Each structure stands twice: as C-alpha cells, then as structure tokens.
Amino acid sequence: MLRNRAGAKMGAEMGTKAQPMPELLVRPREVFGDTEIAREWWSERNPALNEETPERCALRLGRAQEVQDVLSRIENGVIS
To answer: What pLDDT sits at residue 61?
Structure first.
C-alpha cells in the first residue's frame, strides 16, 4: 500500500498518477487547429484509449504515449 507524505494510505490509482508532458497539453490544439475542438477531444471518451478520456489516460503513469500515438494517427489521417 502506498502512502502520501502525511502517512495516509493511497489507493492504487492515486499512486499511479503522473503529470502529463507539457507538449502533450498543446498537441491536440496543433493537431486539430482549434482550441475548442482540442478541448472537446481532450475530455471525451475515446475508443482507441479503452473508452477513457485522453486527459485521464495522460494522467496515468506510462499511458501518455498512448495519447501521443492517437494524436499522431489522427494527424496522419488514420482515424482510430
């Protein structure tokens, strides 16, 4: 069981959170060319990410690359 600095127990999900890479936060805007569309994409469930939102997926340790991969496929015309 993981514990925070105060010694309180943390659930497994809390212990696997990470900060998304800064470039990942602006990448959707670059791919879609529109801030509003990028925000919508960031917060909608995505089948390519096992029905998680890109935001939630990016916050999970080791899964930010999956979000990058989906954005790259979209950018290259491969709908997923």
So the answer is: 80
